[in-house]
Amino acid sequence: MDNTTPSLAAGKRRRTLLLYIPMVIFAVIFMFPLIFMFVSSLKPDAQILADVDNIRAFLPVGDISFDNYAGVFDRVPFWRFLLNSAIVTVLIVGVGLVVNSLAGFALSRMEWKGRKLLLTVIIATLIVPFETIAVPMVYWVSKLPTLVFEDGMLKYDFGWLNTYEVMIVPFIANAFSIFLFTQYFSTIPTSIDEAARIDGASWFQVYWRILVPLSGPAFATVAILTFLPAWNSYLWPLMVVQQEQLRPVMVGMQYFFQLNTAWGEVMAYTSLITIPVLLVFLVFQRAFVSSIAASGVKG
Amino acid sequence: MTATSSVDTAVAAQANPAAARPKRRGKREGHIAAYGMVAPAALLLLLFLVIPVLLAFGLSFTNARLISPNAPRFVGLDNFIRAFVADPTFIRSLINTFLFAVVVVPVQAGLGLVLALLVNQKLRGTTFFRVVFFIPVVTSIVVVSILWRFMYQPDGIINSFIDTLTFGAWENIAWLSNPSTALPAIIVLSIWQAVGFHMIIWLSGLQTIPEELYEAARMDGASAWEQFKNVTWPGLRPTMIFILVTITIAALGLFVQIDVMTQGGPVDSTTTLVFHAVRRGYREQQTGYGAAISLIFFVIVLAIAMIQRFLTRDKD
Amino acid sequence: MRTGQKLAAAALISALALTACARAGEGGGSGDGDGPAQVTLWTHSAGNPAELEVYNQIISDFNGSQDDYEVVSESFPQGAYNDAIVAAAASGDLPCLLDMDGPIVPNWAWAGYIQPLGISTDVTDALLPTAVGVWEDEIYSAGYWDAALAIFARKSVLEENGIRLATVDQPWTKDEFDAALRTLKSAGYATPLDIGAEDSGEWWPYAYSPMLQSFGGDLIDRDTYLTADGALNSPEAVAWGEWFQGLFAEGLASNTGTIGNEEFNRDEVGLSYTGVWNALGSLEAVGDDLAILPPPDFGQGPKIGGGSWQWGISSSCSGEALDGARAYLEFSFKPEYVATFADKQIVIPATEEGTELSEYFGEDGVLRPFTELTQFAVLRPETPAYAVISTTFQTAAMDIMNGADVKATLDQAVKDIDADIENNDGYGF
């Protein structure tokens, strides 16, 4: 990737150093929760509480073991929770990318009646914090029709409670995502579409063959931004899902907050559920880098 | 646009005889395709956002309770009057929410941009730093809040750190128990937690700026600052609007940190609109009143978002 | 590519499918056939293996003991339970049997979400009065145990500092207690009392409203249940507030720290105001030196909070399932189960027979002193308004702790509570 000309080597080295110093300082500031979390996950509760006010909180010293991890697997059906969160998150992110980018495409690059109005409505819906509509939402989804498979045939019923779809469908369309796609797509010159349309491409083909490949950073950003709330969702699954076998990881965290919190196990559990998020982030952030090449093609 | 598209269609029809259709095809097909493309998102938003919001609005004019044997009764504007006249905590919530946003929006946006510029450099290890800066964002906010509560204790690590920096001149503060430091303490934690998120958005904006523009600028002998001013900043305009809107909205919606760390105290110094709405509407089961607070909140945020859009509108 | 048309077609097909197929659950149902009637049960015990084990034992014993009913359980983590259960109530999705925290029982009974228990009075009469939930003279809930708060101390520390060992018959007075704290502070404890102020939520009214009551104040006027005026802002209540505020201002207690009893176990505080559930841990840490003392008498005698998790039956439970729910509850109050709960959870057995069988609370049990404390138990006000009283008191007490003007804070709390009661037309009082 680094193919700048090797001239002015000394100046470049000084500049490099100047860039690394702040990055390292920021890195230290941003790192400590993960270090604290991981280090504490190896300690017994009493020691975590004793160490919390000094530097030992960040050092794996004292009574170190993997007991807390064993405790986690004893206390919660961890793999089940992880699977549930994976199903819910993958579907919200995956289906969401398609649905929201299609809407963003139509809103940014096509001219049609009602476009301005819809854009305004979508921006207005950005402002709704979920906590404030949670109660009417529960009532509402408990009245929605659904299809169920029963006695060998498809039947309908009312009420979405206790299902996967109640954790997924309401979060697929996302005003933030649509807004981000709209913004991003509008930075790409419309002359490309026009040329393709002249070649006989349908609008969908313009979207799929031209805009999508050019929009790596937007897709990566939206994927990351929708992944996080989906993975971290807590209040909603708590309210609409009662069976243990459907619970996601964040609800599982509550298993450790009894009369006296099992801090070591909380830290072990959070370490376990944070790792998948970091992995996903690593994967998607590559899309940023690879898109540098894409933007070169584009010009 | 109409003219252009019919020209396009005419040319398209010529170039591809198989696709030859009546003249108006382009526009009408464009319309239908556009509706098809927005339909799934629009339908879902209608079902799972607009309708619940309207339900909440309806409740705000009643005395509905979460748990009650009595049917809700229409009470007109009682709930709204109560908020402004008889609920001093609501007024404090309003003030605190604004204070929080006024500090967080510029600081978080600026710091996010600095981080994005740093990790956008073609240097070894930027992937590592990107991941590191993103760590607070991916760590559960509940855990983060619990952790910072420990650190803000009088004998906690933050006090002992400042003590070391000032060679012992520092007097320990119970950050979260002091009405004048509690909100600033939560501001610091919140920026720390969320800034990596906005770094990512800035970064995606930076990636949209074609490399050739920088090359051209460099060939003209532009300094790093001039490159930033003339190439980067103008290219970041759409991103900036997005960032401002999202940070403002997130800041105004402050809830979890308050819920975990201070419960709105000490002496109402950290209560916020959403926290207050949840407390009244859900914890205290006063659904109607909670919905009224939510409605006031929506109106305020919508007004701010519109002002922001007006101020940052494209001047061309 | 006509995306729009495709979508429209898809929507049409699914709409047709919806109308063409039958409503689920119609024709050939489950449960009303030949098999045993299913009785659904929710607990707040997920993540608490000790408690869950007892429930599973009782349920399998019950299911094995007869063929008419089958109890099916689902457990929730405690921190999430109330939110989950309120949501289920709002959407009409409650199970037959559910457990709930004592103080919300009147609220639920008033709202019609639970029905009178209807089990044999032989069972409920044998229980501690604070383990039974009553609303309008009907019993709505019953529990296997109750908790109790006490002052934990080290006998050696008290002796060294010349502090009298308080007893149930002769508890510390306010002056004695204050003097003891000052003595311990000068003996080197930075904050001599761990009062638990770092905790939040229901702990606040549970732990500190008994102190208010011992001073002579209360959360609400218990004669009418229509106002908090004259109770929560009475001169006695203000005296409580000023004393409480002084604890923190003088550094006798800390408003930070860690939840639990670690500070006491590590000898960082001289006295700890905490619950029976921490007693075994402290006994391990301190051994014979541990003294379990009644809370001080601030004027009206020592008081502790009463009423803990109890079982109720939802209103939607009917027919065979309702009979099953009652049969299960009667079955579950056997002395050996009550004793097992107490010993696994370290809480006080709700029946005398259970107490005798208990390892820790029986005749020679190491935690026997706690059983004597239950005589001081006061229920939190049995009114549907308690949901608001609880959060209002919590906010007010926290503000007082942090230095707010006591009288003004309590006056505002009274206003908030009274406004809520008025909005609900007195909650039926």
Q: What does this molecule look like?
A:
Chain B: It is found in: Cell membrane. Chain B: Belongs to the binding-protein-dependent transport system permease family. The complex is a heterotrimer of chains A (299), B (316) and C (429). Chain A is mainly alpha-helical. Chain A has a domain of 181 residues: MetI-like (MetI-like fold, Orthogonal Bundle), CATH 1.10.3720.10. Chain A has a two-stranded antiparallel ribbon. In chain A, strand 1 and strand 2 form a beta hairpin. Chain A is flat, with a radius of gyration of 24 Å. Chain A starts with 8 loop residues before the first helix and ends with a helix. The two termini of chain B are 18 Å apart. Chain B is built from 14 helices and no strands. Chain B has 316 residues and is mainly α. In chain C, 44% of the residues lie in helices and 16% in strands. Chain C has two domains: 172 residues, D-Maltodextrin-Binding Protein, domain 2 (3-Layer(aba) Sandwich); 202 residues, Periplasmic binding protein-like II (D-Maltodextrin-Binding Protein, domain 2). Chain C is of the alpha/beta class. Chain C has 17 helices and 16 strands. In chain C, the strands form five sheets. Chain C has a five-stranded mixed β-sheet, sandwiched between helices. Chain C has a four-stranded mixed β-sheet with strand order 10-11-9-12. The chains are: A mainly alpha (299), B mainly alpha (316), C alpha/beta (429).
